[in-house]
Amino acid sequence: MTLRSLTPACKDEKAAHSAIDVVLVAFDGAEAIDVAGPASVFTKAEHLRPGTYRLHTASATGGTVVTNAGLSLSGFCRLDELPNRIDTIIVAGGEEAGVRAAIVDHEVSAWLSKVAPGVRRVASVCSGAFALAAAGLLDGRRATTHWRVCDQLQTMRPQACVERGLVYVRDGPVWTSAGVTTGIELALALVEDDVGRDVSMDIARTLALPLLRAGDQTQLSDTLQAQSAVRHRLRDLIAWIGLHPGEDLSVGALAERAHMSERQFARAFAAEAGTTPARFVEQARVKTATRLLRQTHWTQDKIASSSGFRSVDAFQRAFRREHGVTPRTYRERA
Length: 334
What we know:
Helix content: 40-55%
CATH architecture of the largest domain: 3-Layer(aba) Sandwich
Shape: elongated
Number of domains: 2
């Protein structure tokens, strides 16, 4: 299966210099979503704000890249064919052999070390961080990668400070993200940094993302972790709770949604989720409130209402139980 690259002509000397040139670097064995996800984000941003971005896809040899899913992406530039005015470089991740070949055989890291001083931002998705590390771009910086290979990255580059389990990390001009789909969240953060949150949120809605996580949230969502521990009929309910904190989440309402009696539901939920329905709901609402505290300037009253709490007082008590500090103190520290 062949997908045509979204890349315009590798060099466009007549194009307006005001546009931000974004380069996605890939290689044979790259994770398809690592390329397609960020490409989709920047393409949608360009549609919303014409003239903002020019997107280029590139590889060491140019031509066609065969991803780890067997998809062939065509129309790639060679690295030496890219325009001189590069603003942002994003290196995809993928299979270990492909990453190693990109670093050693095709000298992607050598190219990065040469061009990085002249660009505004360098970023990686998943194991693309290894290419940045080999180029020395992570030395003395915080970084992250897929949770499975964080230890490997730290061992490879002791000079870096690898943050395990985060969605993405920004340290100065260097941005690194976790695995696969977090590349979409990284790209949205880059777009927000360029043109504002309204555009990034519009793109997130267009992509039907369930939520837009901050960089310091965990790669493996709490909802996913909870779902993995329960059977099918409660799995969907747990996901629904996390996405609808403002709904009626009483035991009676949840039992009805699960098509169980209240007693049967309460017992089954506690046995499988390891906590009571009421406690789980409170934790889900606090997680929503925590995200809103970090990502908005809303008042505590609005956050409490949006998170499903009946009052600010109830919100504050629950928040203190979970975090050990008041919402105001948490926000100030964050």
